[in-house]
C-alpha cells in the first residue's frame, strides 16, 4: 500500500478514527494488526519474515537479560545477528553473490556452478532488519532493558508508518512512547498534518515531476548530450531527496498525529558545507545507525588515523551494500567513503597550517555557498553510480558530462518538464534556505494561523503541480 | 473543538487560495496564443486545418503552408492526440468558426485510447463534450477538479500555455536532428515499427467525422507522415493503407517514404523543422496539381 494512493487514504482515516477511540492494549493491538494489514497488502507471505525477526530478537534479548555470563550473552547476540543477517542475505544478496561467483568461475573456465533463486525482494527488509538488530545490540550493551511484552515489541518492529522505508527508529526512543498513553492533542494533529502535507509535496510534486526528466535520461544515455545528462543528474539529486525525505516526513507526521515523537531523518542535506556534514544531515536514522553499530564497533577513531580511515571506508561500503545488491551501490558507498576521508585529510592539513577562516562578512558569504556547491557536486558524482543500471552506464554518463563542447540546449528534449523541474527546485531551495536562515519552523509553530495558511497553500500547490500516478517510493527497493 | 475550528479555517483558506489561483490561470489560458486556446477563445476562420498526433505536429508547418498558398491555415495536432479527442476539438472549432475548405489529418492519430485527455482538462471550463469525456473516462480526476479548480491547470500542456502566452505556437516542430551514432546503430529488422490496422471504434469515430464534415462542404485528406527508412516496413504500411482506403473510401497521401535525408528527422518517427517544411511543400504541390483554383 503506497502512501500516495487512495487505498492508503481510506486506510489511514479508518485507522486514526479507531486509534483515538481505543486505549491501552486494545490500541497497541490495533497498531499491530493495522501494520500487518498494511504490509500484507503488498505480499502477505513475507509477514512470516517479520514474525521470525520479531520472535528471534525478542527471545534473544530476554535470554541476554537473564544471563549474567558475558559469553552466553554474546552467544545470544551472535545468534540474533547471524540469523537476522542470514535472512537479509538470502532475500537481498544471494542472487548478487551467486551471479558474481558464477562470473568468477566462468572467467577461470569452470563455468556456472550455482543457480540463482527466483525471489522478490521483500519490501523494507533492510529497514526492519536493522531496526530489530539495533534493539538486540542495545540490550547487549545494557543501553535498554529488554521489552517483556511481545505485543509492544512486535508493534515496535512492524509499526506501519516507518515499516517499509524508515526512518529506523531506536527502541530507546519508541518503546517507552508505545508504553505510555498518547492522548488526542490538536497541536500534534496540526503539526503532524503539516509534516504529512509537506512530505506529500516533496514526493508527489518534487520527486515525481523530476522523475519524468530523470528516467528518460538514465534509460537513454546514448541519445543525450552533455547538458541533457547533467540536467538528469542534478534532477536526480533532488528527486531522491524529495522521494525519501518525503516518505520520512509522511511517516514522522503520521506518528506525530498519533502522539509519537520521532526524530528528523533529513536536515536540509544539500546545504551541507562538506561531505561529512552531508552524512550528518542525510538519512540521519541510518547514518547514526552505521556510526553506532558499525563504525564504533570497528574501533571508530580510537586507534589512530589509518584505522579511522579504514573504518570510514568499511562503514561506507556497508552503507552502499545496504542500499542494494549491486556493484554500483558498493561503488557509490566507496566513493562517499573516499570523499569523507579526503575531507578529513584536507581538514587536518588545514588545521596544521593554521588556515584562518575569513572573518569578513562578504568573503564569508561567498565561501559558504561555494563550499555548498562543491559538496553538492561531489554528492552528484556519487548519485550517478547510485542511479545507473550498471557500472558501464555510470562511466558513460561521466564521460558524457565531461564533453565540454556538447553543452547545447537546443537539442535537449522535454524542455517543458525541465522548466517545471527547475521552478520546483528553486522553490524547494528557497523554502529550505529560508528555514535555515530564519528558523521558519519555530516561526510557524508560534503563529498557528500563518501555519494554516501555509498548509492550505501547499495543498493548492500539490493540486496544481502534483504528479498523480501512484509512483512507488525509491527507497521501497532497499 | 480547537481542531474543528482550525480544520474549518484550513478549508476556507484553501478554497480562497484555490479560487484566486485558478481564476488567474484561467485568464492566462484565455489570452494564450497556444493552439487550443485560440480554438476556444479566438475567432480563427481558417481555410485549411491540419490535425494529428506528434507526427502531425512535426510534419505539418501551417505558417509555411499559409505563406505558400495565401490561405489561412492552422495546425491542431498535439502529441499522442487520439481520434476521439481530435473529433471533440474539430467539432468545437466548427461550432465557433466558419467551416474550413480542407482538413488534413495525419492517420496515425486514428487510434483508440484517451491518452493525453487529462492534459487538456482545463478546457472543460469551455467545452461540454470534453467535460463529458473526462467524467466518463477519468471520474476521479473529474471530481478532483471540482474540489480544487487549480487541478484543472495541472498538466504539461498548461505549462506550454504559459510559455505561449504571447508567442504563437504554430511553428512548434522539433528543431534537433537524429543523432548519427544512434541512426547507425539502428538495425533494420530489430527496430522496425509495425502499424496495426485501425481498430473498429476509432474507425467508427473517423467515419462519423467524414459523414458530418462532408455535409459542411469540408474535404478530408488523410496523410501518412514519414518514417525513417531503417524502422519502416513498406509491406506493412501498404497493407495498412490498403485497408484504410477500402474502409474509408478516402485516398491517403502516402509520404511514409518521402524523406530519405536523415537530417530531416528528429527521431525515427518524427521529422524536424526541415522535414516539416519539405512535407508541407509536397502537400501544397499536391493541392495545386489537383485543384488549381485552390
Please render the helix and strand layout as text.
The complex is a heterodimer of chains A (478) and B (294).
Chain A: H1 6-19, H2 24-43, H3 47-66, H4 70-107, H5 125-140, H6 150-158, H7 171-179, H8 186-219, H9 226-258, H10 275-281, H11 284-295, H12 304-323, H13 327-352, H14 361-387, H15 391-401, H16 415-438, H17 440-446, H18 448-465
Helix pairs in contact in A: 1-2, 2-6, 3-4, 3-5, 3-6, 4-5, 6-7, 8-9, 8-16, 8-18, 9-14, 11-12, 12-13, 13-14, 14-15
Chain B: H1 2-31, H2 35-41, E1 48-51, H3 54-59, H4 62-69, E2 73-75, H5 83-96, E3 102-106, H6 128-137, H7 139-147, H8 156-163, H9 180-185, H10 200-215, E4 219-224, H11 234-248, E5 253-254, H12 273-290
Parallel strand pairs in B: 1-2, 1-3, 3-4, 4-5
Helix pairs in contact in B: 4-12, 6-7
What this model shows, in words?
The complex is a heterodimer of chains A (478) and B (294). With 478 residues, chain A is mainly alpha-helical. Chain A has two domains: 6-184, no CATH class; 197-477, no CATH class. Helix content of chain A is 72%, strand content 0%. The longest helix of chain A is centred in the N-terminal third of the chain and has 38 residues, at 70-107. The two termini of chain A are 16 Å apart. The model of chain A has no long low-confidence stretch (mean pLDDT 89). With 294 residues, chain B is α/β, with parallel strands linked by helices. Chain B has one domain (27-113, 166-290): 3-Layer(aba) Sandwich (Rossmann fold), CATH 3.40.50. Helix content of chain B is 50%, strand content 7%. In chain B, helix 11 (234-248) links the parallel strand 4 (219-224) and strand 5 (253-254). The model of chain B has no long low-confidence stretch (mean pLDDT 91). Classes of the chains: A mainly alpha (478), B alpha/beta (294). The interface between A and B is medium-sized, with 27 and 28 residues.
